[in-house]
Amino acid sequence: MTTAEILNSIMSTGPHLQPGHVWLAGAGPGDPRYLTLEVAAALGQADIIVRDALVSDMVLKLAPQAEIVFAGKRGGKPSAVQDDITASLIVFARQGKRVLRLKGGDPFVFGRGGEEAEALVDAGIPFRVLPGMTSSLTALASASIPVTMRGISRAITLATGHAAGTEDDVDWLALAKTNEPVVVYMGLKNIEKIVSMLMQGGRAPETPVAVIMSATTPQERIFTSRLETIAVDAEREQFEAPALIVIGDIVSMRSRLGVKE
Q1: Alpha helices in 30-171 (DSSP H)
Q2: Which residues of 27-44 are buried (b: 16+ CB within 10 A; e: fewer)?
Q3: Of these four, 52, 68, 123, 209, which has the most CB atoms within 10 Å of its CB?
Q4: Where in the chain is the domain with CATH 3.40.1010.10?
Q5: What is the spatial distance between Cα 233 and Cα 249, in angstroms, rounded to a whole number?
Q6: Strands 182-185 and 157-160, sheet pairing
Q7: Which helix (H) or strand (E) is 225 found in, with range?
Q8: How many CB atoms lie within 10 A of CB 24?
Q9: CATH architecture, range 3-133
Q10: How does pLDDT run across 47-106, given as a tens digit for each residue?
Q11: Which of 82, 81, 103, 99 is nearest to 90 (CA)?
Q12: Are strands 243-247 and 208-213 parallel, antiparallel or unpaired?
């Protein structure tokens, strides 16, 4: 068998998206090359795709038969309300549609997929979860930044930065004390607060930091700096969402692996 025949066989033998069912799927970090075979097969079966803002148009070209419903959620910009998104999934399913809820990255990593799955259970709607490549880990690998590295990193924390300085915030002082790498989602607008709290917690000002914008897409930009200057640098370089902030000594591996800035 050829490679194409093997791939087609794998995709054709998987589960089929049935009318009245919802699949919660992860589209990976952006480039269609990072789709799983399972998600690629689901794109060709859906009647309706409820897509997030971080799902690329190139991915959606794999589903010419589907109606596309935009449910983008972007910090600082007009966004759909989560309760409305969840309600629409239930309505479409009860209409007998084959529904694909398509999210950037993985649906269960800062994708609110757990909330949507819980609501589908309560409504009696059959569903499946289709994992996607987590944006942060894929972005780091493609940027030549090892997530873990013997002698440098024994663990890593994925944190959201959109609530920095509020009651819903994570404990940045505690994260600083671990001295392990932190990858921050949705933190660009609060980067100054985050940096301040990490340094208050004891993280060294010279700690290497990388900002990865629009990972794996043609718009990707990567900038490396130090913790004490990254807020000013990111503003000067006009970085904007979607962006990941990588904080820790693993960032220094990028240059050691031969990447020229």
Answers
A1: 37-43, 57-60, 82-94, 113-123, 135-142
A2: bbbbbbebbbebbbbbbe
A3: 209
A4: 3-133
A5: 18
A6: parallel
A7: strand 221-226
A8: 27
A9: 3-Layer(aba) Sandwich (3.40)
A10: 999 999 989 999 999 999 999 999 876 555 556 788 999 999 999 999 999 999 999 999
A11: 99
A12: antiparallel
In sign, the C-alpha dihedral spanning 62, 63, 64, 70 is negative
Nearest of 201, 203, 175, 28 to residue 106 by alpha carbon: 28
Q: Are 185 and 157 in contact (CB under 8 A)?
A: no
What does the CA dihedral 125, 100, 36, 121 come to, rounded to 10 degrees?
A: -20
Which active-site residues does the annotation give?
A: 52, 73, 186
Residues 6+ apart with CB under 8 A from 9: 1
HSE-CB at 13 with a 13 A cutoff on CA atoms is 6
The candidate with the shortest Cα–Cα distance to 71, out of 85, 61, 59, 83, is 85
In this structure, are residues 65 and 45 in contact, taking their beta carbons and an 8 Å threshold? no
Each residue's pLDDT tens digit, 201-252: 999 999 999 999 999 999 999 999 999 999 999 999 999 999 999 999 999 9
Query: Across-strand partners of 184?
Result: 159, 245
pTM, two decimals, is 0.91
Tell me the residue length of the chain. Answer: 261
**Residues carrying CATH 3.30.950.10, the chain:** 136-256
For the domain 136-256, what is the CATH code? 3.30.950.10
User: 41 — phi, psi (to 5°)?
Assistant: -65, -40
- Residue 104 has which token pair? 């950037």
Tell me the per-residue pLDDT of 168-203, one tens digit each, with 9 for 90 and over: 899 999 999 999 999 999 999 999 999 999 999 999
Q: Distance between CA 245 and CA 182 in Å, rounded?
A: 8
